[in-house]
Amino acid sequence: MLTLDEAHLALRRELAALAALLQEGTGERWPVVVVIAGLPLMRAPEHSITYLERGAWHELGLLTRHDAVRALRLPAEQAGRPMDEDAAALLAQASGGYPYAVQLYGHHAWRASAEHDRIGLAAAEAALPRAQGELERGLYAARWTAASPAQRRYLAVLATLAASAHPTTARAMADALKRTPKQLSTVRDDLIKGGTLTVEGAELRFTIPGMSAYILTR
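The chain above was modelled as a monomer; its predicted structure follows.
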């Protein structure tokens, strides 16, 4: 099995070389399975490789509360330090179901419980500010720094609308920025492809829980 993470960072020619190799291997019946992971932008036209599009694609998205709790409790149990259900529920809620956040909250809860044989509620509570601080310094800051000035304006307006419980549709965003939805379509689509935003029905949402509050402090 060959696993490749962060594939969205690869150049198109690099993915094309991999695809050509896999296509040759398929013809020769190589006993190999390839699993590739990356942000949605890897399927954008400038990155997409026809042969790779033939694979079975799975959009991970946000975990349900049940799956987030399971993702926290099962590895802890297998590692010999079970996590209490109330602790897992607290961490799952804080993570918003974002896979990386689930992993990060679980990591800090594990470290906070180092002197115990279980991961209890006290360890989960101690993990919250530590994980949140790491998200702010890492994931949130990286997304914000990488955004263009136009994207930052868009994200700031979205965060403001979301905080005031106003609609966050493309039309509402356009009205707030005094532009047309078509004029903002490139900015919106690039943020979606980059994994910063997602669409639920007609509403735009931040993919990463907590990023809205982070942006409001900028």
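The mean pLDDT is 92.
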